[in-house]
Amino acid sequence: MDVQCISQRLGAGARRAGRGALAFLLGTLGVVDAWAGEPSVPYVPTPQEVVERMLQIAKVTTTDYVIDLGSGDGRIVITAAKKHGARGFGVDLNPERIAEANANAAKAGVTDKVAFYQRDLFETDLSEATVITMYLLPRVNLELRPRLLDLKPGTRVVSHDFSMDEWKPDVHVQMDAREKYGGSGGKSDVYLWVIPAKVAGAWRWQLPVSGKRQAYEVTLTQRFQMISGGVNVGGRTVKLQNPRLRGGEISFGFTAEVNGAPVKHEFTGKVEGESIAGSARLSGSRVQARFEWSARRAARSAANDAPPASLLLLSTNEEFVGLGSDKFLMQNCLHKYERKSQ
Ligand SMILES: C[S@@+](CC[C@H](N)C(=O)[O-])C[C@H]1O[C@@H](n2cnc3c(N)ncnc32)[C@H](O)[C@@H]1O
Fold first, then answer.
1. Residue 182's domain spans which residues?
2. Per-residue model confidence as pLDDT tens digits over 49-75
């Protein structure tokens, strides 16, 4: 197996984790230059019909800033600008792809909105993004996951074909893609995640109920966008019903006894750091009321969303011995694409 083949089979994680040892090995063989900057994912373009579906599912508009990680010929960011009026940029390790993408942006008349840079996606500042797009590999997605989860709540992440393991997508569609693999045709999966606010911990507030101030304390646990928990009202704890988190928008309900009678509570709000503001509705035999509602976080706890080390290790080892399936999927895509494009 040649050096190029080895480096394509290595994920960014493996690439960086093993850089020291491999640099030594490759240095000894005199092939360090071929190793540096080698893309961890081969170039296979997303069919244009899938690009359009990705942008549609992400609901891209003129207010969006789209960043494509591994941008190839630039088609995703260029389409986002031309068809949806968005701004953004793409990064790719391959200088030929960057030159091609910038030329395509000029042809499309969108150089005032988009640009392409030769840069490692792992070294790219993503803080400006409202939408991240990618067509990478499951293992690369997994390595990016902690950084994506730290983006502004509400940022949308769209991935072509590859998921994020146990971080379930908010939307998943499968579509026929006639142009896939350079025209052979195939199925494409499009996944969308909305970055959830970090809400784990204890939240407190008070409401005036039947002339008395009633104190509430909700304790939330969080795994990605999935939340659950209980509320303490007057010394009794009840489970939250229908807790839901999408970006920074949160809602939940419960029925708890207040002043000796059961009262149904429903809350919706927007999370802004350590506070939530929104509205509350209470309904019971003695109370029917709507309130403006705000809660403060009294104690923060960590969300349970770190990728299991065993999973990263497993995929890293798989890369080395070539037993994993995801890279063969993409390699297979590449071979089919290259055969068809010749
Ligand atoms: C499968 S292609 C996707 C191209 C484009 N996003 C699309 O969907 O049409 C993956 C691209 O990622 C680039 N790439 C791979 N590893 C990268 C890295 N670490 N940093 C930046 N680009 C990378 C490759 O050069 C390739 O152009």
1. 48-196+308-341
2. 999 999 999 999 999 999 999 999 999
